[in-house]
């Protein structure tokens, strides 16, 4: 068996299997990006000798490396232009600015312009018959066909290798021929091999570069088209993102292989002809056996695709469940639900592993058959020739082996890929053609007509005027299957007539006027804003704007990735005075001060590092800074609390914008009252417009009743005592965002303490970047996880024996061919060869199956260990590690362990053994070659080190620059109306092109680096063959070399061309994948939340009483709390006793420590000193965490539900029977809804975070959990935003009702954000700056003089306003009278 030759597939676009993996798993990225490991892992990674000798930190500034286009012809095609980059990469870390400038022919603006220009010509010439393939051909076709000449030349040269090998072996057979002829044949063969090595890299360089250019051109063209589409046609972001990420990728996949669609059959015919010359009709048996591999591969691919569809379901389910539980990890810990959740995830994992095991078996068999296919095809060919009576000679055998080896890669790999990728590219081309055919947003307004319309109104102050306007949204496109489908959808929409969203709209807004728009959900408020912006289709009526300088603040704030300053300026020049005026008006001063980098703080994608209120204020600040004439504001006040909202309304909307025409959509009726005019919108029509007092009296309007009710209630009754909303994420980001990390910390804590729970600087923890090689300990621990000592020894022996038997089979062919003519006809020769081939097939399958099984077991074991370690980690771990970073371990890293690592590792091992076998045979045949082996080893090591050091850095930087290209498209689509409102289309198109060009520079270096390595290794292999060939000719007589042995030697050495570079790249891939192993191993050793000290205390104390806590008494003695990695206590010396059965409200300003109090009670963070918290006279730090948290109930601030069933969300342990669950569901009034509305009843589905249930229903589920536990101590972290009145009333009744209340005998601690919800509690605790400053009944605290420094609670109530203060005092008095009456009785 000869030549497992897989040239150039590692730096090519991934195959269909990898693409399917990438499409199904959003976290999966190319393996070269896996270069960051935790700090401990870095300690185990040893630098190579070259890195120890020469690695330096990067200089502050480095000049760019010279580009390819400025170099000589020799430098271009020997890839010497990469030498400076490789040299720098070996010595130190590369910097993005060091990469060469983009080549002129790769520039995105030029490529996309050419493509769109040709498409426009095609549309103008052919109309509806325009075809995108013709436009694409005119741009790329002719150059690609010229590149096909190089592909054809390579095919001819490959055939020439076999022909010349045959002649050389014939020379060896005839000992009477002159040495001169032998040297000439050796020279000719060396020339063919060197030419093959050079052409091979020319071929793939041209193909991959063309694929890159097509990708760049189509992505830029799609983006530019997006900027001109109606937002109704861009509403399906998934369709467009799929075009860019998947469809366009098909062209990059196809470009290197497309020529093999015609070269494959041609090469097969040539091979068949030349083999027919050698072994007559037996050539058809050999080629037929080779062709049989194709249907076998198709069968494997079909089976694998079916497995993949099933596997993806369970994998996605597992990843979603892990993500869901990590997002709600605070709730998991508060409820002590780690064990049932780990059990559920492991069940999903086991089902996933079943399909992975089946897929791994298929992969193992496929790898083994590919390895043995050369032996199988030669067996068919040579035994058939033997049975036909033919005489096998060395020239016939090894010439045919060379033909089969060269044809095998083309026929079984490149040709199927060409057919597959071309068919996929054709489908993708049709989808992109359909997209480019979508109608662009038309300017339905004529400026001249608008001006005439405005002049006819006779009022120059009018800035917005609509008369009898009827507007509709386009239906949008839900499928891009083909252009015909798109046109059919659009034509059907036209025939059915427009679906009117807004009708008979009459509106006038003047300069300096504020019009507030209100109405029920779905009444068309946001649509009216879009109609003014020109985003909707105008069916009838007239619309005119007095100015084109419009600012827009969308309902969902659109944040651009960049700094706070970038988002506010939005491309405008920086005016410092105006900038800070805007910051103050938009209540952002405090936020800017808290950010470590101030206005230069980097904001994550979509503003994930900001709270909802911060995002809303930032978007508003952008609009204000624009200093427009017209302001369209779509509900900018809903995400902020009452205090901030009042500031924005008074200082911004009615302050700095008072002279502007303002259109304000809002649900906050207190602000509607302050508008100049109110527009009431219901069912797409204006029900009333005018002053608030008039509109609220609109007859027949249901919403007008809500306006009247609001006017009658005291102001600010729901005012928050918090100063403002806080970010749930870190307050700074000093490092750029990685392409694979979402910087977001989901948390169910109250906002006042979330920032405290990060580290001392508010930063996320950083992962170190790997330098050097993975340590041997990592490999040892990986295989130890998957197999014992015996299995490892068996595996190692099978790998050695398998290669040995394959080599013996080929040696037997050489031996057979050297026998005399009579002995060659002995059947024993054929039987021995057949037996050796069968043993090769069996061993190949056995060792492959064993290796993949060991890898499968390792992946299973490491996942279980990591899951357990992560779930048992303290909460601080989740607060300093972003959700995306944790998910990388559970998705990308685990998936690489499951699928890519075993396949790549096994492939590398096979290649390594083949290379070793080749060198052994070379030394055995020509001992003098032993002198070259050290030189070969040094050269190999040097090139491998240089390549890995450089390519890893290049790929990492390329991945970082590619991420913004892909993320920019959905980001722009989300804010498309904002971009158009600000007139920023050209700037965004230019910015996108710059991002593409930046990525293209890096990607071009990556493919060049792969060519740099491949060229040198292949040319080196060719030179080695030259030495061997000339040495064999020169030493023929001295060593008595026979033609069979020389044929075996040269055939083996020929396979080094391609095999050597493949082995180097696979070794680099293995090392990259082993980084994932290192990352997973690191997370298996995380320090647990329950320390050994706590375990020993709990064991010493013994089991808890069954009914604990039976009273609910809580006593704190000098309790303090400090967050990890900080020095300042957030709670200090709190001493208080809470009697059993009392209802206590805990209040305080933002940052007072309210939620820290909750964390101390549940030991989310351990308080001190020892025994400072006692519940029913038992110290909480002497109780196991699972027991403590399971004996206390909590109703969290944000009602969090987990993916699963309703039963699982209420009772994940399965401790309670159906009757008890139904009882609590009935108590929270969910039973009736479930019985009548849900077929699944208790098994009804709950989506991630309960997204298929309303907020109110989720809060009722949380209430049901607390009732089901039936504990004597309940903690409620009150929701900051008001819930629906019915749900709120139900929760309050459960707490307060002394007769039928479900918590009537329990102690209830409520962390309050609204004073009106706790004013009738038994006791109030007031916290400030981590200290208990007041404790008593609400009435007693309100009786204090506001001027008294100790009257904290009284001042909070007074700040709410006189009306609210009186109502609260009356409620407290009523509660006090009830309490005193109860005491008297």
TrEMBL record:
Instruction: Tell me, in one coarse class, where this protein mainly resides.
Output: membrane
Keywords tagged on the record:
ATP-binding, Membrane, Nucleotide-binding, Repeat, Transmembrane, Transmembrane helix, Transport
Q: Using the record's annotation, list all stretches that form the ABC transmembrane type-1 domain.
A: 146-423, 794-1072
Q: Which Gene3D superfamilies match?
A: ABC transporter type 1, transmembrane domain, P-loop containing nucleotide triphosphate hydrolases
GO cellular component term of the entry, any: membrane
Which parts of the chain are coiled coil? none
Q: Where in the cell is it found?
A: Membrane
- Spans of biased composition, class Pro residues? 56-66
Q: Where is the ABC transporter domain?
A: 485-708, 1114-1354
Q: Where is the composition biased (Acidic residues)?
A: 719-728
Task: Kindly give the SMART domains that the UniProt entry links to this protein.
Answer: AAA (SM00382)
TM spans (from-to) = 144-170, 182-206, 257-275, 281-300, 368-388, 831-856, 912-943, 1013-1033
Annotated Low complexity bias: 750-760
Matching Pfam families, A to Z?
ABC_membrane, ABC_tran
Q: Note down the stretches annotated as region Disordered.
A: 1-35, 50-70, 716-764, 1086-1106
The UniProt regions of compositional bias labelled Basic and acidic residues, in chain numbering, are 1-10, 17-28, 1094-1106
**GO MF, one annotated term:** ABC-type transporter activity
The protein's topology relative to the membrane is:
Multi-pass membrane protein
Q: Which InterPro entries match?
A: AAA+_ATPase, ABC1_TM_dom, ABC1_TM_sf, ABC_transporter-like_ATP-bd, ABC_transporter-like_CS, ABC_transporter_C-like, ABCC_6TM_D1, P-loop_NTPase
> What's the family?
Belongs to the ABC transporter superfamily. ABCC family. Conjugate transporter (TC 3.A.1.208) subfamily.
Q: What's the protein called, per UniProt?
A: P-loop containing nucleoside triphosphate hydrolase protein
Q: Which organism is it from?
A: Spizellomyces punctatus (strain DAOM BR117)
């Amino acid at each position: 068996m000869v030549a497992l030759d897989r040239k150039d597939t590692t730096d090519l676009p991934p195959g269909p299997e990898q693409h399917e993996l990438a499409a199904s798993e959003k976290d999966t990225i190319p393996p070269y990006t896996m270069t960051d490991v935790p700090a401990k892992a870095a300690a185990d990674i040893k630098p190579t000798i070259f890195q120890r000798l020469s690695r330096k930190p990067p200089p502050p500034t480095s000049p760019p490396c010279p580009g390819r286009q400025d170099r000589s012809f020799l430098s271009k095609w020997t890839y010497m232009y990469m030498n400076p980059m490789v040299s720098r990469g070996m010595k130190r870390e590369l910097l993005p600015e060091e990469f060469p400038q983009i080549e002129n022919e790769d520039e995105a603006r030029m490529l996309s312009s050419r493509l769109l220009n040709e498409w426009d010509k095609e549309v103008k010439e052919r109309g509806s018959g325009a075809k995108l393939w013709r436009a694409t051909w005119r741009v790329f076709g002719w150059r690609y066909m010229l590149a096909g000449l190089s592909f054809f030349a390579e095919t001819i040269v490959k055939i020439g290798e076999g022909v010349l090998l045959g002649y050389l072996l014939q020379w060896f057979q005839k000992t009477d021929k002159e040495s001169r002829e032998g040297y000439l044949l050796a020279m000719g063969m060396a020339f063919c091999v060197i030419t093959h090595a050079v052409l091979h890299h020319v071929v793939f360089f041209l193909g991959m570069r063309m694929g890159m250019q097509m990708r760049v051109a189509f992505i830029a063209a799609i983006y530019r088209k997006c900027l001109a589409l109606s937002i109704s046609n861009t509403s399906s972001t998934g369709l467009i993102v799929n075009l860019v990420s998947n469809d366009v990728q098909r062209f990059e996949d196809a470009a290197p292989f497309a020529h093999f669609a015609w070269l494959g059959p041609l090469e097969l015919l040539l091979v068949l002809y030349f083999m027919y010359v050698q072994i007559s009709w037996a050539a058809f048996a050999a080629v037929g056996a080779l062709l049989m591999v194709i249907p076998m591969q198709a069968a494997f691919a079909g089976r694998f695709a079916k497995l993949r569809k099933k596997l993806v379901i369970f994998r996605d389910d597992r990843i979603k469940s892990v993500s869901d539980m990590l997002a709600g990890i605070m709730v998991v810990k508060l409820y002590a639900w780690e064990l049932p959740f780990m059990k559920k995830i492991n069940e999903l994992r086991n089902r996933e592993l079943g399909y992975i095991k089946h897929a791994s078996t298929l992969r193992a068999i496929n790898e083994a058959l590919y390895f043995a296919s050369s032996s199988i095809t030669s067996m068919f060919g040579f035994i058939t020739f033997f049975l036909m009576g033919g005489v096998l000679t060395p020239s016939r055998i090894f010439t045919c082996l060379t033909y089969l080896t060269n044809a095998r890669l083309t026929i079984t790999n490149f040709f199927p890929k060409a057919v597959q990728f071309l068919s996929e590219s054709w489908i993708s081309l049709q989808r992109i053609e359909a997209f480019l055919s979508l109608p662009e947003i038309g300017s339905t307004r004529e400026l001249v007509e608008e001006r005439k319309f405005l002049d006819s109104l006779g009022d120059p102050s009018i800035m917005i005027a609509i008369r009898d306007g009827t507007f509709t949204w386009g239906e949008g496109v839900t499928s891009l299957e083909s252009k015909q489908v798109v046109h059919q959808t659009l034509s059907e929409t036209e025939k059915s007539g427009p679906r009117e969203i807004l009708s008979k709209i009459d509106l006038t807004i003047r300069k300096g006027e504020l019009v507030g728009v209100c109405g029920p959900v779905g009444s068309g408020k946001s649509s009216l804003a879009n109609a003014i912006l020109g985003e909707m289709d105008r069916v009838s009526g007239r619309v005119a704007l007095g100015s084109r300088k419009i600012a827009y603040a969308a309902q969902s704030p659109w944040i651009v990735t960049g700094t706070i300053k970038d988002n506010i300026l939005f491309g405008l020049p920086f005016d410092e005075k105006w900038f800070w005026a805007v910051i103050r008006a938009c209540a952002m001063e405090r936020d800017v001060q808290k950010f470590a980098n101030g206005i230069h703080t980097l904001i994550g994608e979509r503003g994930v590092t900001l709270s909802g209120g911060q995002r809303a204020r930032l978007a508003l600040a952008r609009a204000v800074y624009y200093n427009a004439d017209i302001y369209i504001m779509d509900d900018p006040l809903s995400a902020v609390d009452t205090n901030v909202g009042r500031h924005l309304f008074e200082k911004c909307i009615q302050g700095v914008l008072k002279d502007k025409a303002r259109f304000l959509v809002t649900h906050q009726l207190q602000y509607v009252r302050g508008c100049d005019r109110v527009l009431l919108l219901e069912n797409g029509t204006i029900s009333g417009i005018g002053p608030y007092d008039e509109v609220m009296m609109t007859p027949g309007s249901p919403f007008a009743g809500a306006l009247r009710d609001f006017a009658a209630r005291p102001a600010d009754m729901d005012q928050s005592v918090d100063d403002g909303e806080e970010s749930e994420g870190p307050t700074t980001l000093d490092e750029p965002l990685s392409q694979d990390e979402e910087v977001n910390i989901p948390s169910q804590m109250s906002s006042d303490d979330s920032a405290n729970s990060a580290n001392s600087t508010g930063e996320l923890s950083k992962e170190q970047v790997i330098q050097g090689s993975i340590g041997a300990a990592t490999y040892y621990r990986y295989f130890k996880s998957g197999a014992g000592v015996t299995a490892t020894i068996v595996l190692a022996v099978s790998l050695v024996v398998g290669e040995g038997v394959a080599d013996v089979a080929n040696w037997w062919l050489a031996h057979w061919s050297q026998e005399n003519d009579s002995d060659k006809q002995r059947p024993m020769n054929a039987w021995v060869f057949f037996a050796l081939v069968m043993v090769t097939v069996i061993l190949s399958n056995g060792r492959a199956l064993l290796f993949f099984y060991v890898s499968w077991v390792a992946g299973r074991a490491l996942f279980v260990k990591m899951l357990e370690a992560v779930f048992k980690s303290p909460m601080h771990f989740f607060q300093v590690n972003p959700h995306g970073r944790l998910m990388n371990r559970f998705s990308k890293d685990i998936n690489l362990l499951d699928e890519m690592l075993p396949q790549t590792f096994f492939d590398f091992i096979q290649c390594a053994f083949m290379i070793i076998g080749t060198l052994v045979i070379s030394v055995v045949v020509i001992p003098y070659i032993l002198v070259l082996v050290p030189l070969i080893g040094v050269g190999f090591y040097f090139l491998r080190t240089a390549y890995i050091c450089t390519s890893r850095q290049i790929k990492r930087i390329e991945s970082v620059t590619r991420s913004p290209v892909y993320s920019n498209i959905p980001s722009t689509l989300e804010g498309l109306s904002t971009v158009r409102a600000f007139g920023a289309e050209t700037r965004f198109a230019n910015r996108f092109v710059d991002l593409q060009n930046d990525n293209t520079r890096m990607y071009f270096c990556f493919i060049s680096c792969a060519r740099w390595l491949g060229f040198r290794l292949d040319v080196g292999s060719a030179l080695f063959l030259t030495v061997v060939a000339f040495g064999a000719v020169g030493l023929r007589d001295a060593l008595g070399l026979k033609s069979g042995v020389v044929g075996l030697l040269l055939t083996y050495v020929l396979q080094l061309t391609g095999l050597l570079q493949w082995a180097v790249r696979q070794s680099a891939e293995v090392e990259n994948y082993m980084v994932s192993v290192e990352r997973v191993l690191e997370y298996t050793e995380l320090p647990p939340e329950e320390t050994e000290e706590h375990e020993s205390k709990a064991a010493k104390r013994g089991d808890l009483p069954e009914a604990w806590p039976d009273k609910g008494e809580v006593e704190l003695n000098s309790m303090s709390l400090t967050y990890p990695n900080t020095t300042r206590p957030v709670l200090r010396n709190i001493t208080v006793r809470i009697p059993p059965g009392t209802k206590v409200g805990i209040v305080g300003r933002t940052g007072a420590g309210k939620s820290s109090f909750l964390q101390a009670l549940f030991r989310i963070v351990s308080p001190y000193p020892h025994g400072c918290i006692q519940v029913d006279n038992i110290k909480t730090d002497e109780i196991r965490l699972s027991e403590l948290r399971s004996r206390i109930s909590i109703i969290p601030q944000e009602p969090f539900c987990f993916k699963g069933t309703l039963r699982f969300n209420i009772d994940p342990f399965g401790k309670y029977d159906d009757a008890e669950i139904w009882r609590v569901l009935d108590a929270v009034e969910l039973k009736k809804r479930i019985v009548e509305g849900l077929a699944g009843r208790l098994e009804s589905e709950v989506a991630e975070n309960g997204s298929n249930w309303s907020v109110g229903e989720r809060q009722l589920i949380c209430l049901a959990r607390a009732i089901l536990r039936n504990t004597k101590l309940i903690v409620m972290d009150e929701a900051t935003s008001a819930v629906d009145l019915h749900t709120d009333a139900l929760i309050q009744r459960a707490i307060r009702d002394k007769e039928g209340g479900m918590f009537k005998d329990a102690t209830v601690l409520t962390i309050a954000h609204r004073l009106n919800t706790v004013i009738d509690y038994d006791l109030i605790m007031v916290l400030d700056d981590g200290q208990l400053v007041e404790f008593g009944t609400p009435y007693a605290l309100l009786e204090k003089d506001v001027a008294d420094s100790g009257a904290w609670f009284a001042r909070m109530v007074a700040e709410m306003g006189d009306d609210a203060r009186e109502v609260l005092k009356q409620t407290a008095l009523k509660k006090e009278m009830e309490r005193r009456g109860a005491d008297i009785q």
